[in-house]
Write a structure and sequence with these properties.
The chain is of the alpha/beta class and about 475 residues long. It has a domain at about 5-150: 3-Layer(aba) Sandwich (Rossmann fold). The chain has 18 helices and 14 strands. The chain has helices at about 30-40, 50-55, 60, 75-95, 105-110, 130-135, 190, 200-210, 225-240, 260-265, 280-285, 295-305, 325-335, 355-360, 385-400, 405-425, 435-455, 455-465; strands at about 5-10, 45-50, 65-70, 100-105, 120-125, 140-145, 170-175, 175, 195-200, 215-220, 245-250, 270-275, 310-315, 340-345. Helix 8 packs across helix 9, helix 13 packs parallel to helix 15 and helix 15 runs antiparallel to helix 17.
């Protein structure tokens, strides 16, 4: 289709205070879907992703855009506002009109926070209205989207629209939207609803084949909500002779179906990302997680037994969490056999039940959104101080990611590999991977860099702990 003269740039900003984001090379799929739809409708479109570029955008990279579309999470919205201001300023200097549109989870949850910073705010799912929006047929200040009923109607994402797309080592693929669960800290149900929508198995297979890659990440919030659908997909991958390594996000209860776990491994599953959240039974109830500590232990055992890596994600700072819980969590992670771990601060994200409760109780420390990345304490915990909670996260990371544990893992894996090689003389077996050892070495480096980068914020929390009554102003920045 012939391109229009209108030029549109979609942007995914990076989180300014989160050094972990500098190592992320998997783009959010939302902007890619929208840009692909616009491109197929004949609009001249491109995507700039600061995480993939590994740097902040330059003004000259956005100056030619007639429309600038930003997709922001809460932690990136302040950077999004900054980009929009730079864009409008350079267009004004050049005597050109400008138009900014913001969408994504943050704008959808609290549009009032961004309505004065952008020309238009899009709330919800935008696929059915993006072309009309870009063509100027929807002129309201706030535009409401609608849930996409038929996910098969989505095009295959065109990652080549992203500048520097070759840096993407693992391609993201989405097979569903929505989540039937209702965890208090999660905004997924607010954005996509509790109704669970699937792409058809045939459509997913076509997309995987079109991707033509050897490594995928299923970005669904829960890859195995519909077990029958998942089994059909895995069987179809086998019948189509699809050989690739893939990872996914799921819940611990999937491990109860040992046959399904074995099939996942046989079809190429490399790592599962599981939100365990807590080993404190009271906190699990508080978060409405609907799982037990024994479910967590069983999940680690079952997946490890099938030689599938487990990336465990834990949240610290529930109202029932004290220092003993933090120490117990760290010990559990060191002894459980997890391949890697991610410690997060329980964060009141806009749109969640947790946010509404913490805000109503007056426990928010500030609304400087760049720190709402689940790595910074932004609320007043009940059983520890903000500084103690922040330090607990750092200590837990340092306890897990050590050079000694990496070396021990490497030695253990070496002997496992020798044993597996001997067994392979008789039958085919999967060889262990040294990747967990490399992850621990690399993780140690990242944690150290995060602490150095965030010293001003750690100082702010220290002042709070001294009882100075200091509150962080929204416009204040704590970064070096």
């Amino acid at each position: 289709m012939k391109k229009t003269t209108k030029k549109v740039i979609f942007i995914e900003p990076m989180a300014a205070t989160n050094v972990f984001s500098h190592y992320i090379t998997i783009p959010m799929l939302g902007p890619v879907y929208l840009a692909t739809i616009a491109n197929e409708a004949g609009i001249d479109v491109s995507i700039l992703n600061e995480n993939i570029l590994g740097r902040k955008l330059r003004s000259d990279e956005i100056a030619d855009a007639d429309i600038l579309c930003l997709s922001c999470m809460t932690a990136t919205v302040e950077r999004g506002k900054e980009i929009a201001w730079e864009y409008k300023n350079i267009r004004k200097i050049r005597g050109l009109e400008s138009h900014t549109i913001i969408g994504g989870i943050h704008a959808s949850m609290i549009p009032d926070d961004v309505v004065n910073d952008f020309d238009q705010v899009f709330i919800g799912e935008a696929e059915t209205k993006i072309v009309d929006l870009l063509n100027g047929e929807l002129n309201d200040k706030i535009v409401h989207g609608e849930p996409l009923v038929d996910l098969d109607s989505l095009p295959t994402p065109n990652f080549k629209l992203i500048k520097g797309w070759r840096r993407i080592k693992t391609l993201p693929i989405m097979t569903s939207r929505g989540c039937p669960y209702n965890c208090t800290f999660c905004s997924v149900t607010e954005m996509f609803g509790r109704g669970y929508r699937n792409k058809s198995v045939d459509r997913i297979i076509d997309e995987i084949i079109e991707y033509n890659t050897k490594q995928l990440f299923f970005v669904d919030d829960h890859f195995v909500v519909n077990k029958k659908h998942t089994r059909n997909l895995l069987d179809k991958m086998e019948s189509n002779n699809i050989k690739l390594k893939w990872s996914c996000q799921l819940r611990s209860d999937v491990s109860r179906d040992k046959e399904l776990v074995a099939i996942m491994k046989a079809r190429g599953c490399k790592t599962v990302f599981i939100g365990f959240e807590s080993i404190n039974p009271e906190t699990l109830k508080e978060l409405k997680k609907n799982q037990t500590v024994e479910d967590i232990r069983n999940a680690v055992r079952v997946f490890k037994r099938n030689n599938i890596g487990v990336h465990g994600m834990f949240m610290l700072g529930g109202d029932k969490d004290d220092k003993d819980v933090f120490k117990a969590t760290s010990e559990f992670c060191r002894s459980s056999g997890l391949s890697s771990v991610q410690y997060l601060i329980l964060t009141p994200l806009p749109g969640t039940e947790f946010y509404r409760r913490i805000e109503s109780e007056g426990r928010l420390l500030h609304k400087n959104w760049q720190f709402y990345d689940a790595l910074h304490v932004v609320f007043e915990p009940k059983k520890v101080s903000p500084e103690e909670l922040q330090q607990a996260m750092i200590d837990c990371f340092n306890d897990f990611y050590t050079y000694t544990s990496a070396l021990n893992d490497a030695i253990s894996i070496f002997f496992q590999t020798i044993d597996a090689l001997l067994k392979s003389i008789v039958k085919k077996v999967n060889l262990p991977s040294f990747e967990p050892s490399f992850i621990k070495v690399f993780g140690k480096h990242i944690v150290k860099k995060w602490v150095q980068f965030n010293r001003p914020y750690l100082g702010y929390l220290r002042i709070l702990s001294l009882g100075k009554g200091v509150k962080l102003a929204k416009e204040t920045e704590f970064s070096e």
